[in-house]
Specification:
The complex is a heterodimer of chains A (about 375) and B (about 425). In chain A, about 70% of the residues lie in helices and about 0% in strands. Chain A contains 14 helices and 2 strands. The two termini of chain A are about 25 Å apart. Chain B starts with a helix and ends with a strand. Chain B has about 425 residues and is an alpha/beta fold. Helices cover about 30% and strands about 35% of the residues of chain B. The chains are: A mainly alpha (about 375), B alpha/beta (about 425).
Amino acid sequence: MKINYKQLSVLVFMSFISLKLLALPSLLYVDSENMSWLVALVLMIVDAIYVFLILDLMKKCDEKNILEFMNKCLGPVLTRVFLLVYIIKYALVVANISKGLEFFVVENFYNEFNWLVFILPLMALIGFMTYKGIRNIARVSEMINLAIVIGCLYIAFQSFSSADPTAYIPMFKDGVTPLLKSGFNHLSWFGSASFMMLLFGKVDFSSEKKWTMIRYLIFAIVLVQIMYYVFYGIFDNISATHNFCLSDISQFSSQESSINELSWLIVALWVVAQAVQLALYSYCMMQAIKFTFNIKNNSVPIIIVMAYILIWSLVGENTIGLERLFFTPFASIITILAQYVIPIVLYIGYIMQNRKRNAGMKKEIKSVIKLNPSVNVNRIKIGGEK
Amino acid sequence: MKKIKSLFTPKKLVIWICIILLIFTLPTINKPAMSETQAIVTMLCIDKEEEKIKAVVTVLSPGQDKQAKYEVFSATGDTLASTVDSIALAIGKEMGFAQCEIMAIGEKLSEDNIMKTLDYMTRTKKVGKNAILTYFEGDIEEFAKSITMLAMEKSLKLEKIINFDKEYILAEDSNIESFYKGFFSDISIGIMPKVELTSEQKGNAIEVSSSGSSSSSSGSSGGSSSSNEGSSGSSDKKYIVTNGSTIVFKQGKKYYELSPSDVQKVNLFTNSSDKGTIIVEGVTDHIYDDAKVVVDILEKNSKIKVSFDGDTPVYSADVELIVFIDEVVQESPTDKFLVRNQDFFTEALIEKLKEKVLSSMNEAVNLIKEQNMDVLDIYKNFSRKQYKKFTEYLERVGMENYLQGVRFDFNVEINNEY
């Protein structure tokens, strides 16, 4: 079952905003202070550029899945290595989302909360969605997309006037180095286009409209920047102490508001959005495992992914050391490979493969001409897919 | 694989769901109600008593007759954590601060750095970020009981009163959040509204009865706890005063008390509080004859600009007030007062108002310089908008004296409501 171009755009949009509106703003503030918004902006623009690169590759893949396409362009060994990188990348994102979701629910909704009560049914749901395939996940994303956008904007504009615009100046007070450091340390929160690599051959481009993806990407970047403007504007020098951007903004100005509960409803909706994101990356992780280890059915990789989420939920809480390992240079390097290096290598591989084939075809044509001098060379199409 | 699949057929899936539900629901049914194990703290008052921390909490107890009841408990200890634990041990419930709407800091505690005590609230038992932070004077237990009685007798909640007053008071967002922001800024200044408990009737006082009976028991962590039901006991009259007085904290310690009139003057610079009144006397022209005119501020737009004139930092404030005439007190009102469409907003009145506002602003600046307390965010404005020049200026004059060298330029414009 394929998804259409608009559904892919929605998935990209959700992937662009999902990890950015919880812990990331406060984490960025530690290193880059009032320039954190710029770090996020630059990295999101880079991600957006890669969306188009990967889209181009998806169109060139000729209905092949990532395994077949990589095999064709890069050979089996490199393919396996790269798919392993993707497994790690998705595992990191899955861990990040599930851990973020846990802290979010426990800190915001229930004080003493047995996380297992929440995660077990959630895992059943995610397992089911993963099993049903990408179309299912895309449709749910489509359904909640508008509500999420309106909700975020509502929360942001509620506190918009309280945001202090001077919180953003002076710019580059400590130079560019802290920004680069911050960007590198938090790269694993970006690389939002990497999930597209596992959707090769699963997107129907027949309904493609030129501006759909551009519109969604611009809107995702603008939405995140509006939220960051409000967040850093209202929390200013204590931004690093606010772990949950969305809910903390919603609570900032809601004391007198009689529609306080509406904010909580929106925050609760965010949990649903995160769950769908968890399903999306679980699906990608499942596919990557399936391709890497040549597993024919979906059940075994799904069980592996669900077991991974469960283990992470059970042991993750007290393994700060492990978290540090996951969310600093190691995770950043994996993200660089998965999002920035592999697509380019694949692109180069595709071009070289094409050239090789063209050269082979030219040779063939020459031999045909030698044998049959009456053949009109101009009429023979050289290169391309057909 | 087939065996595993056969375990998850649709029919068996229903059985699995039932088993999972049973596992989680049965123990939950046996559990006591949350309100029996956790105390819903609605107010926390902290002060010092003989070098120990004294905490008084108001706990909301949902009654069976759908009538909520407030109870007041107190304890003392070496730290806030041990004090709160003492109360928890005494009443057999864990303290839940999620619904805490007011945190009141006592006079004696404010003599030392209060952030040492408030630290606990940020680490373990997080108070809601919007909990109102207020300073009080008077006996801590009496204060807590009176505020509780205020809610019970008059259905007036202190947090609602302070929230309403925030358009008139300086400590606009007087919550923990904004206090932290101020404390952790370079100049470490925080402000809190003052709530006073007196036994004498004062200006803006609300009368409440303060109930009496109490019992106490020794706590295991060196503290003692006492409880008092707000709804019972003998009573004597007390007055709660919230007149806009504001306490300025520097490095976490009480530094200066701004009187209500000081607050009004300082407020002229800020956009956050845009209400107030201006009274001018001796207005004389073709309409007024030595009149006392009271104008109400409807709207205030204040634009702050910071710049450098050579090496001198210049803080300019352009204040536009939109006012309407609220009251005219004149010995012998003339028939001109009866003329409809009469323009009462005369040149003479405007001049008088400008004079008054300018002198108030000058007084505010003098006070700020005199007390060396930057409640106008002068440091913040300069350090953000004129970073390089201000850093050089600070190197020249030092952090302690930066206010003294700042030149203030004011421009006031007064318009009537139309």
